[in-house]
Amino acid sequence: MNILLRAENITKQYQKHRALNQVSMNVPAQSIFGLLGPNGAGKTTLIRIINQIIGPDTGTIFIDNEVLKPQHVQQIGYLPEERGLYKKMEVGDQAIYLARLKGIKRHDARILLKKWFERFDLTPWWNKKVEELSKGMQQKVQFIITILHRPKLLIFDEPFSGFDPINVNILKEEILNLKRDGATIIFSTHNMGSVEELCDHIALINKSEKILEGEVNQIKKTFRSRIYEVELESKHAPEKLIPDNRFTTINTKSNNGSHSMQIRIEQDATTNMLLEALLPMGNLMSFKELTPSMNDIFIKKVTGKFPLETNQKNGEPIP
Length: 319
Prior knowledge:
By secondary structure, this protein is of the alpha/beta class. The protein has two domains: about 5-220, Rossmann fold, CATH 3.40.50.300; about 225-315, Alpha-Beta Plaits (2-Layer Sandwich). It has nine helices and 16 strands. It has helices spanning about 45-50, 90-100, 105-120, 135-145, 165-180, 190-200, 215-220, 270-280, 295-305; strands at about 5-15, 15-30, 30-35, 60-65, 65, 75-80, 155, 185-190, 200-205, 210-215, 225-235, 245-255, 260-265, 285-290, 310, 315. The strands form four sheets. A six-stranded mixed β-sheet has the order 6-7-8-3-9-10, with helices on both faces. The protein has a four-stranded antiparallel β-sheet with strand order 2-1-4-5, covered by helices on one side. Strands 12-13-11-14 form a four-stranded antiparallel β-sheet. A hairpin with a 4-residue loop joins strand 15 and strand 16. Helix 2 (about 90-100) packs across helix 3. The chain starts with a strand and ends with a strand.
């Protein structure tokens, strides 16, 4: 696997607060890498170190197998969570100015920006002042400026904040297009649904330390709940359907002989064993595994409690 960005043993201390403690991670080239964690976990500190806004106390960042240096800034596009456009400046002039800071000639910048403004329905706002734009429109402008110079590495910190669902979908599609065009993207968000839609790999930071890293599908397999949702037509009462300690019935709902159940298979049992126990009991209508979402996995790693492993009748953890 080709790694574009590698962080090795990054530590950062602020007076009495340790923001990062020996954090290492590998961001594969041409992928979308989710950088996740609760508020205050250390994500923003790591992003600022990658952007060379601050330096680490110890540890090293590599980009394309080179130690990160000031000249690498031109290869990085950064969209921070806190937006930062000059409100009194006209949108077009400001976009050209910021594009030139990234090394794009004025003539080329104007051509590229006109194309992107048309794509995002911003053309009528070219000669307006930034303060006249809605928050969502300002975010679109800043997104365009971030990607305009086609950097190798893009860092998006909560890019969907303030967008309505339609514009969120537009931005998601553009992010996927950037990946298809060869960009590597670090994507920091609290929206776990977006992580599942977009990210190939993730790293989870909690209390200054990395506690999880890997490919999204593999992580979901690792955290399989072994809980199955079953629908069964049977004359038997639900509590008598699975008289077997190899299985734990978490929840049951019954209606006129139809039973919907959530059943956990214990470690010494298999799916086939559960099917063998169910089939003599009645007509099996459906049978599917409840796969944990990234949100479930996030909560499990941070709090130690898995939402799927909860008795839905009383909200308490399963024994």
